[in-house]
Amino acid sequence: VFQLSLPLNFLGSVYRELRQALIDMETMFNLQGVHANIKDKPDAKLLQLTAHGAELRFENVVFGYHPDRPILKGINFVVPAGKKVAVVGPSGCGKSTLLRLLFRFYDPQSGNVYVDNQNIRDVTVDSLRSHIGVVPQETALFNTTIKRNIQYGRVNASDEEVIQAAKRAQIHDAIMKLPDQYETKVGERGLMLSGGEKQRVALSRAILKGSPIMFFDEATSALDTHTEQGLLSNIRSILHERGGTSIFVAHRLRTIADADEIIVLKDGQIAEQGRHEDLLKRDGIYRHISWLMTLGACATGASTSTSNSLA
Ligand code: ATP
């Protein structure tokens, strides 16, 4: 077993590094305005948002990475502008896939996704992605200073804006303790940050980006309860200030219990949908998994896999 597991572990870490590199590339592509798979239509328009925020709508969305293995089998839901929706469901049911479709790394095989009534197939990929802030479960750090890493959220942000974002993401104090503070080199060849610190760097980036749509994919899963609670309340007030629309993929009750709507995905479909209190009253899946969530168990897809990242 040992002989076998060693090369597998090794391959696993090579695979992770490769993935990481791909994620970095994707972000770099975004920064340079280049995108890998999806091409703009010749007459693609810029995504235009109304003043009061962005409504998201998934309409009959069918999608599989391989056409003969559908992951989403007809998904319909709306996130009204300024509202918070949480998505829960077993590992591998397609929660992160929703993000990849919204971000347009892929197009659905059928059905459509709309942002403020504009089909995302009809708008430029750049204008779409510029409106969406993502805080992934696993964050790619570049081999550069922590300041530059945060600035990837908005490359022309001032030092003061970077610091403000880091403060709201509750990572400023930790940065001030680093050898060169904001100028400390981090990433593969620099200082390694913990999973929770990386998540807060990602959150700083997203705060700096200032997007009206925010997608949190297990974004606080590596934090301890105390830090997570403080951060969730900061996130809440940031979203409130902006009238931001948000989707949370999460496996802890405190992250999702205040959502305006909770969507329970199962077998490619929405099995249940409603507010926390209403779902608890039903004798359904949500009630069944919610006590496991209270215990912090991984009933809803908190896996050790890397499948939550964007790439
Ligand atoms: P988890 O909670 O474990 O992160 P998830 O609900 O977010 O899971 P997804 O990452 O959306 O699940 O993946 C849905 C399914 O699609 C899984 O079975 C996964 O193995 C598969 N999948 C994900 N990415 C790809 C890909 N690039 N190519 C092929 N299959 C993929």
Order of helices and strands: HEEEHEEHEEHHHEHEHEHEEHH
Class by alpha and beta content: alpha/beta
Query: What's the Cα radius of gyration?
Result: 19 Å
Report the count of strand segments: 12
Helix content: 25-40%
Bound molecules: adenosine-5'-triphosphate
Helix count from the secondary structure assignment: 11
Distance between the termini: 31 Å
Strand content: 15-25%
Low-pLDDT parts are 1-6, 31-35, 297-311
Averaged pLDDT, please?
A: 82
Subunit structure: Homodimer.
Subcellular location: Mitochondrion inner membrane
Organism: Lunasporangiospora selenospora
GO cellular component, one term: mitochondrial inner membrane
Please characterize this protein's 3D structure.
The protein is of the alpha/beta class and 311 residues long. Helices cover 38% and strands 19% of the residues. It contains eleven helices and twelve strands. The strands form three sheets. It has a six-stranded mixed β-sheet with strand order 6-9-10-3-11-12. Strands 2-1-4-5 form a four-stranded antiparallel β-sheet, with helices on one face. Helix 8 links the parallel strand 9 and strand 10. Helix 5 (159-168) packs across helix 7 (195-209). The chain is globular and about 50 Å long. Adenosine-5'-triphosphate (ATP) binds next to helix 2.
